[in-house]
Amino acid sequence: MATINQNYLKLPGSYLFSEVARRAAAYAQANPEKRLIKLGIGDATRPLPSVVLKAMHDAVDEMGHLDTFKGYGPEQGYDFLRNAISEHDYHARGVSIAPDEIFVSDGAKSDCGNIGDIFGLNNVVAVCDPVYPVYVDTNAMAGRAGDYSEELGKWSKLYYMPCVAENGFTPAIPNCKVDIIYLCFPNNPTGAVITREQLKPWVDYANENGAVILYDSAYEAFIVDDDIPHTIYEIEGAKTCAIEFRSYSKTAGFTGTRCAYTVVPKELERDGGNLNFLWNRRQCTKFNGVPYIVQKGAAAIYSEQGQKEIKEVIAYYQQNAKVIRSGLTEAGLSVFGGVNSPYVWCKTPGGMDSWSFFDQLLHEANVVTTPGSGFGPSGQGYLRMTAFGDADATKEAVERVKKILQ
Amino acid sequence: MATINQNYLKLPGSYLFSEVARRAAAYAQANPEKRLIKLGIGDATRPLPSVVLKAMHDAVDEMGHLDTFKGYGPEQGYDFLRNAISEHDYHARGVSIAPDEIFVSDGAKSDCGNIGDIFGLNNVVAVCDPVYPVYVDTNAMAGRAGDYSEELGKWSKLYYMPCVAENGFTPAIPNCKVDIIYLCFPNNPTGAVITREQLKPWVDYANENGAVILYDSAYEAFIVDDDIPHTIYEIEGAKTCAIEFRSYSKTAGFTGTRCAYTVVPKELERDGGNLNFLWNRRQCTKFNGVPYIVQKGAAAIYSEQGQKEIKEVIAYYQQNAKVIRSGLTEAGLSVFGGVNSPYVWCKTPGGMDSWSFFDQLLHEANVVTTPGSGFGPSGQGYLRMTAFGDADATKEAVERVKKILQ
Question: Looking at A241, A275, A303, which one is the last position of a domain?
């Protein structure tokens, strides 16, 4: 009898965003005259930059001619894109990352999950709390998380690092040995950032303890402050302890176009294995590269015009974040994030629990948000709003929230 | 200290196609005046059908407008594509597969590898010998294959099913209990096919023993004979024991465009788990869907014009296969496959080993092929040629081979 991966059966049933969608749909059905505004999911809404469209049209044309048709590409990505990433995202920031340390992929979600393939099952995994659920779920599926307690909202073998208002949403360095550490800055869901000075001790901890930091930098394009690193490799010593995930999803609106990349430095060795070699082997065996058309679109972002266009879109979302931030503050809420991040994180009023505040905003303001408790137990009493909506709708949503909280 | 997945270190170093490429490049460098013809790798070379190009151009345009822009799509694929697959690839053949049993993905290689995620590590895995290396390597990486013996060219825990001329390249039903069985028909690398009558006992074996068949049907479009099933679900009982992999790579030249799908019937249960539910969970957690643009391109294949165009391309490759088959037969070789398949598999002359014949063809005929031994020990003494090349070049390659073997 074939056996299944029993770890899958340990996963708790309802998924955060399905439950959000279910409640929103139920409300909309019962109240068809109400116009809901969705500030829940972190999904791009602005059109792709024109240079990206142009590059993709050209690439589609290439696929139609015998002499320019492209079959299998390199599993790791085309040189034209790996070189552009190395040059623009790293070298231009004074960081040396070689093209063969860059692996182009179909998404940071895939990479954050699949990276587990190259690690042993006995590693102690540390995650922030609240946290992007993919880090937790993929480790649970692999068997590294132990058992889930509905009561605690926690897995028995994971090491949770609470991120709450009291510590500025910055996790404390573990006071014991952990092996794999997920860090995401600018953070999803809290919108918190980490300065170079704050990140250095993490790199030192990882090097001293042989740990590996999995650094999710998907929201890097939203950074405005000078003391916030755009890449963990700005920190001395990071190349011997960190893997970095980047994505075009939020940088250039690629959520439906699918392109990302992961950096695995060649200096990164653990337990007798070179992680760049292992990840390369994983990708060559279980992945066949990103569509040529999509890679051409991604490469166009690095042109002068591409940079100009993506900055305009980011500025549009940043303005939304500002509107949400200031509106919620005026409404008397304690508000975090939203400065170097598309996410605004706020405390629920009067100690309400997250889902109750979610329901209040849904029913009274007709605004869809995301309850903080869905991201982990320390998210209880918080709520997330995203800046990816339409500017006018965002303003209106904020006005409605202000009105009901007056 | 973080530990790595030690199974990766057990993988033998050199990869078949890298070694083929290395030898071809070395010869080309030493003999710059020679024109090599490559019949080695199974990669499409004909341009994409015009309906696919048109659909992708339209989709790129949609991504450029606010009201038609697409962000995150469903992880399982858009309904327009899942419905088209259900209707055209299954219902039209008298097979009922619901859209929610179909999972659109970026490639059959990814799916064949990732499917292992939902199974226990203790399953006994059966593979044909010779075999597409991805089945073996991904199970080795997961720890299901045991240890590799360089001498035998085999993994200690895999169950090998020899496919040689003596059994018509059709594996024998295991005489012991195995749990997971990879079958690929039309076969890569041998080009062999299986009739409905021959496939039925496999389905019966799997149902009786609680095994799961992983059926790779990537070359289905090449089937011409009426008694060859296009899908394993043509066989009664297959829905309670089989998962099927399909791809647009060879059907429509999508090797560089990346779209495939996997069918997991809802009736398929094992070990207390529903495999459709498990695979859905896997994909939702570790995958974020195929680019909208690519899915629109794939859906266009199902239009009347799309069907006409892909049939022309398939016919072009089928004609190449015929040329290779008849030419090698005239040259006195024992030739197999190439009828319902783009792969031609032949015995080396005079009991030569595969790499020696590969070298002879490279050096004397300047034709690049793939040595059968690279696909497993039972591939020793065979050679694979593919029909995906240019028609004139294929003819010339065959003439050259005939000449040196006269």
Answer: A303
Q: Using CA atoms, how far apart are residues A331 and A256, in angstroms rounded to an integer?
A: 34
Q: Does A22 touch chain B (CB under 8 A)?
A: no
A212 has which bridge partners?
Answer: A180
Domain hosting residue A42, numbered range: 7-47+305-405
Residue A62 near residue A69, CB atoms below 8 Å? yes
Chain A residues close to B6, C-beta within 8 Å = 120, 271-273
The count of CB pairs under 8 A between chains A and B is: 260
pLDDT at A14: 67
Q: Give the mutation candidate from B60, B240, B317 for the A interface (greatest A CB count, under 10 A).
A: B60
Question: How would you classify the pairing of strands A125-129 and A180-184?
Answer: parallel
- Amino acid identity at A147: D
Q: In A, residues 325-384, which contact B (CB 8 Å cutoff)?
A: none
Q: Are the CB atoms for A165 and A130 separated by under 8 Å?
A: no
- Report yes or no: B268 at the A interface, CB cutoff 8 Å: no
| Structural domain includes residue B9 | no
User: What average pLDDT does range A207-217 have in this prediction?
Assistant: 98
A274 CB neighbour count, 10 Å cutoff: 16
B321 contacts B387 by C-beta, under 8 angstroms:
yes
Q: What is the mean pLDDT of chain A?
A: 97
Chain A residue numbers touching B109 (CB-CB < 8 A): 286-288
Domain check: are A294 and A199 in the same one? yes
A265 burial (CB, 10 Å; 0-12 / 13-18 / 19+) is buried
Nearest to B60 among A53, A119, A275 (CB): A53
For chain A, the domain total comes to 2
| pLDDT, tens only, B322-337 | 999 999 999 999 999 9
B114 CB neighbours in chain A (<8 A) are 286
DSSP B310-361: HHHHHHHHHHHHHHHHHHHHHTT--EEE-SSSSEEEEEPGGG--HHHHHHHI
Q: Helix, strand or coil for residue B248? A: coil
Q: Is the same domain home to A25 and A74? A: no
Q: Flag whether residue B37 sits within 8 Å of chain A, measured between CB atoms.
A: no
A180 interface with B at CB cutoff 8 Å: yes
Q: What are phi and psi of A333, to 5 degrees?
A: -85, 155
The reply to whether residue A291 touches residue B286, judged by beta carbons under 8 angstroms, is no
My answer on whether A180 and A84 are in the same domain is yes
Per-residue pLDDT tens for A295-304? Answer: 999 999 999 9
| CA-wise closest residue to B59 among B295, B398, B379, B402 | B295
Measure the CA–CA gap between A401 and B111, rounded to whole angstroms.
45
Dihedral Cα B231, B235, B241, B243, nearest 10 deg: 0
Give, rounded to a whole angstrom, the gap between the first and last alpha carbons of chain A. 62
Residue B262: other Cβ atoms inside 10 A: 24
pLDDT tens readout for residues A324-375: 999 999 999 999 999 999 999 999 999 999 999 999 999 999 999 999 999 9
